[in-house]
Amino acid sequence: MKIGKEVQRVWKSLSRSRRQGLRAMAKGNSDAAFRCRCQIVINLAQGTSATTIQKVLQCSSSQVYRIAHRFVEQGELGLADRREDNGNLKASEDYAAELCSVVAGSPRNYGYPRPTWTQELLIKVLEARTGIVVSTTTMSRLLKRLKIRLGRPKPIVGCPWKKARRTRRLNALKRLVETLPEDEIILYADEVDIHLNPKIGLDWMLPGTQKQVMTPGKNEKRYLAGALNARTGRLTWVEAEKKDSSLFILQLWTLIGRDYPKAKRIHLILDNYRIHSSKQTELALSRLEGRVELHFLPPYCPDHNRIERAWRDLHDNVTRNHTCQTMKELIREVDRYLTKRDEELQTQYAERLAA
User: Fold this and answer.
1) Is 322 found in the same domain as 190?
2) Nearest of 270, 268, 301, 308 to residue 166 by alpha carbon
3) Fewer CB in 10 Å around end: N or C, the chain?
């Protein structure tokens, strides 16, 4: 190979120290691309064929010949990275900031009927806003660097209250949690549905395959009413076959009789679901003679009920894509997970107190 002989000639013209320096950079330089260029030249200087170099270094034959010609023409300078001659960086910090601003909105904000973003549409909108055109490859790298992910939006319902009223209620609940006497208990309460037919969720799969989840076919349901201690993180729950006032009343009596029998008063922060304010519930509360007090969140504000996180974790760790064939088996898995989670939270709380 003629170019190989030319590389050997230039290599021999280098001083011994310069050849040692290139060998060292081929092993220890932090730039992987520069290491590869040095290794190509060193292998050619040792008489290795371009085909073998291509296979060993996993690069293209055109790259081998290009680096060889650059080394023959310019010596060590031919191994330098030439990207600094490309001009100003297109994907600058200002461009990245504009990208974050655009992604946070919808294409419809910029005159496009499509409701979701594509990389091509992002490039087009940013070109109109910044005058800079980038390739889809550059956009892909930039999205990855900024940790902008392709995710599933969360469906929500807007609170019908005015913002000032909603804020006042949320601030009042926050003050309640912070100022409640030690002999009173404050809990976040809510219910969760457990379905024998599993909820289907995202999972990793091999290329060209799709995992299957065997379902029992005929669905069964159970319902949990849970209470999360706002101070300690303690989680308690009861189970029933129906999601009605009887489930909530069972939870009230369990909190008083089993979970917090010594509490002077128990405060529950909860949503506006109808079983929390039914006639049966009001009658049960009157029989408890003020030992339980309900504090309602503004409508459609689930993110302010801390127990919602526990239910999300329950679905992610147990019910989503589950393979249980009977409700008894599934409830056993649910109880096992919630018990373990509660123990871990109690341990973390004890460690914080001891610190």
Assistant:
1) yes
2) 301
3) C
Contact between 298 and 165 (Cβ < 8 Å):
yes
Looking at the fold, whether 105 and 181 belong to one and the same domain comes out as no
Average pLDDT over residues 210-216: 85
Residue 280 half-sphere exposure toward CB, CA atoms < 13 A: 11
* Residue with tokens 């060193």, as numbered in its chain: 42
Highest mean pLDDT among 79-93, 95-109, 341-355: 95-109
The answer to whether residue 331 scores a pLDDT higher than 80 is yes
Number of domains within the chain: 3
d(CA 34, CA 101): 35
The boundaries of the domain holding residue 311 are 163-202+214-354
Among 146-150, 163-167, 302-306, where is mean pLDDT lowest? 146-150
**Helix, strand, or coil here: 197?**
coil
Alpha-carbon span 249 to 272, nearest angstrom: 15
Distance CA 119, CA 135 (A): 9
Q: Which of 257, 314, 318 lies closest to 291 in space, CA to CA? A: 257
pLDDT for residue 22: 86
For residues 218 and 248, membership in a common domain is answered with yes
With a CB cutoff of 8 Å and minimum separation 6, the contacts of 239 are 222, 223, 224, 331
